[in-house]
Design brief:
Layout: H1 2-7, H2 10-41, H3 44-71, H4 74-97, H5 103-127, H6 137-164, H7 167-185, H8 202-205, H9 207-214, H10 216-232, H11 238-245, H12 250-273, H13 280-300, H14 304-331, H15 338-367, H16 369-390, H17 392-396
Helix pairs in contact: 2-3, 2-6, 2-7, 3-5, 3-15, 4-5, 4-7, 5-15, 6-7, 6-12, 6-14, 9-15, 10-13, 10-14, 10-15, 10-16, 11-12, 12-14, 13-14, 13-16, 15-16
Length: about 400
């Protein structure tokens, strides 16, 4: 099996395990931070600000992060980003232990997490094609997604249960996992590539944005995903739904937060065995349509079971979009541009996730949580219709990886 051969490559395996440890720590941490800030403030806006704080570094530093990933050693950039995460989580653990936690400190920690993600994600994404053969790239993306979604399933659930023992225990556990991820990453032997040390003029720095604008299948796929999740996101409001509508505790919140990842994991495992090869454009648009419909179902639900099922379907649909989009970005981009293009992709993802959380908080404050979710689901369906008209080449895309691809 091709999947097995990819996992047997020691460097990719270490890289993947390091990803999983860091992702598990982050997911545990996010559930604790969002629950704690809601208990402190009882404010939907505060939940939105958690997402905004993580988004600010991405907005301000994406161009620089992409330049570093293309012009310097990607492995070292990724390692430095992971160390920033270690320091951030260590600071949280110390603040909680010394009883100095506050709303403002939570936002500062979120900025630190955003900074680590801003520099780490472009380098990390650009490394994968050099760790596996081109023929195994789609499977490698699916396997990476499966590992990430596994941690997104168990991370919030574990974090919610650990939080019952106290915030300090949760932050200490997250710190241990992040430190472990650094140790595993230190064992990766990344093949060095000669990077051109050209001057960082404006055209060089903005090369990723220019390239994405020219290649419409990339622009269409990442913008479709961004807008769908931006307006259809429910993640930020889960503490409110858990506490006020579904009447559950932090453990219940952890289960709700894990549900989309459970669906995503099942789908990623399926895609690892049976990757998308034909009709990729149509499948992409259909997956986003299902995401919008599931968002509407979640908005109407007052049942824990229906809410969980809706979130599972949302996660499954989103994973199809993630794998297709990620593969398109890597296949359609030359290696010397992958860092900058991956940085643009990361900015779009952050815009959908973190900025989407802020948008959800603002809209829920203005019109209420349930109307905010319903408007998001309806808006996602409208976006799909518009994007079919705006990006017909993406709709018509058949083979995800062309047979003549090297």
């Amino acid at each position: 099996m091709l999947t097995h051969s990819v996992l047997r490559k020691p460097n990719f395996l270490r890289f993947w395990l390091s990803q999983m440890a860091a992702s598990l720590a982050t997911q545990m941490l996010l559930i604790g931070l969002s629950w704690q800030v809601y208990l402190i403030t009882e404010s939907a806006m505060a939940l939105g600000l958690v997402g905004l704080a993580r988004y600010i570094p991405q907005l301000l530093l994406t161009v620089h992060a992409g330049h570093l990933a293309d012009r310097y050693d990607r492995y070292k950039v990724m390692l430095a980003a992971r160390i920033i995460l270690v320091l951030t989580v260590g600071g949280l653990a110390f603040a909680s232990y010394s009883d100095q936690m506050s709303e403002s400190l939570i936002y500062i920690a979120c900025i630190g997490m955003g900074l680590a993600r801003t520099y780490g994600m472009p380098a990390e994404s650009a490394m994968v094609p050099n760790l596996v053969p081109k023929s195994g790239l789609t499977q490698a993306m699916a396997i990476s997604a499966a590992g990430r979604e596994t941690t997104t399933i168990i991370g919030p659930a574990i974090g919610g249960f650990i939080y019952i023992a106290g915030a300090t225990t949760l932050y200490n556990s997250s710190f241990a996992l992040v430190a472990l991820s650094v140790l595993i990453l230190a064992g990766v032997s990344y093949p060095e590539h000669t990077q051109q040390k050209r001057g960082a003029d404006l055209s060089e720095l903005l090369g990723g944005f220019t390239y994405v604008w020219k290649v419409k299948v990339i622009l269409g796929s990442i913008s479709l995903d961004m807008l769908a999740v931006l307006i259809g996101s429910v993640t930020a409001l889960l503490p409110l739904f858990a506490h006020d509508i579904l009447h559950t505790d932090s453990a219940g919140l952890g289960i709700l937060r894990s549900a989309p990842a459970a669906g995503a994991l099942l789908m990623s495992l399926y895609l690892a065995k049976r990757p998308v090869t034909r009709h990729s454009g149509v499948i992409l648009y259909l997956s986003v349509t299902v995401f919008g419909l599931a968002t509407l179902a979640f908005g109407f639900s007052e049942s824990m079971l229906i809410s969980l099922c809706s979130l599972i379907v949302m996660g499954s649909a989103d994973m199809v979009s993630v794998v297709i989009r990620s593969t398109l970005v890597q296949i359609e981009t030359p290696d010397d541009m992958r860092g900058r293009v991956s940085a643009v992709n990361a900015l779009f993802i952050a815009s959908s996730n973190q900025l989407g959380e802020f948008e959800s908080g603002v809209l829920a404050t203005a019109v209420g949580a349930v109307p905010a979710i319903l408007l998001g689901g309806a808006g996602t369906l409208i976006i799909v219709g518009l994007w079919i008209k705006l990006f017909p080449d993406l709709w018509k895309r058949d083979q995800l990886v062309p047979p003549n691809s090297p």
